[in-house]
Automatic annotation (TrEMBL):
Residues 34-53 bind DNA. Pfam families: TetR_C_41 (PF21351), TetR_N (PF00440). This is TetR/AcrR family transcriptional regulator. Residues 11-71 form the HTH tetR-type domain. Keywords: DNA-binding. InterPro entries: Homeodomain-like_sf, HTH-type_TetR-like_transc_reg, HTH_TetR, Rv0078-like_C. It comes from Halodurantibacterium flavum. The lineage of its organism: Bacteria, Pseudomonadati, Pseudomonadota, Alphaproteobacteria, Rhodobacterales.
Length: 202
């Protein structure tokens, strides 16, 4: 029998706690989930949770980070199928908004996330999304697709528009009905940055 290293055992404990927490937070929400809900289901102790994540909020932050990173990866994979960087940017933003229909995303990331962790603009995962948007805006500006605009301002507004549209869709009474309205508005706002007669194939 192969003995596992301490690092491997710790990694396995973290994965088990994350999986348990993800299921519990999706089903019950942050406030209604107890410490025992998070540990008993996977046969671990509170000590394991404290050691790996500090407390329930720390574990929740790790779950949000995991899901938000998956959302970004999913959006980027859809954007990669587009023929132009401009279309990829629109597709990525629109896809992120659409994920507000996913019950797990809706409850953990878009509803409980801001209430527990504060402004999403300060989450590490959102900062990585901002970095990617900033890079895209820089290239589009260099290619003449966008009118002269401050790169940082444009990147932050595009990122913020997609995020806040997703937050709105998740919070409304009929998310499915609101989704196309949010996506259309996002596209129109983004198109305001286009240079006249721009070649969108760039």
């Amino acid at each position: 029998m192969v003995r596992r290293t301490r690092a491997e055992m710790m990694g396995e404990t973290r994965r088990r706690l994350l999986a348990s927490a993800r299921a519990a937070f999706a089903e019950k929400g942050f406030s209604a989930t107890s410490m025992d809900d998070l540990t008993a289901a996977v046969g671990l102790t509170r000590g394991a949770l404290y050691h790996n994540f500090g407390d329930k909020r720390g574990l929740f932050a790790a779950v949000v980070e995991q899901i938000d990173a998956e959302m970004a990866d999913r959006a980027r994979s859809l954007a990669a199928a587009e023929d132009s960087l401009w279309d990829a940017l629109l597709t990525e933003g629109s896809a992120y908004i659409e994920m507000a229909l996913d019950p797990e995303v809706q409850r953990i990331v878009l509803r409980d996330g801001p209430a527990v962790l504060g402004d999403p603009a300060h989450w590490p995962s959102q900062n990585r999304c901002l970095d990617a948007t900033r890079t895209a805006v820089t290239q589009l500006l260099a290619n003449g697709v966008l009118r002269p605009v401050d790169i940082e301002a444009a990147a932050r507004l595009l990122n913020g528009a997609a995020l806040n549209a997703a937050l709105w869709v998740a919070a409304c009474d009929d998310p499915a009905a609101m989704l196309p309205k949010a996506q259309d508005a996002f596209r129109m706002l983004a198109e305001g940055l286009l240079a006249e007669r721009a070649d969108r194939r760039a």
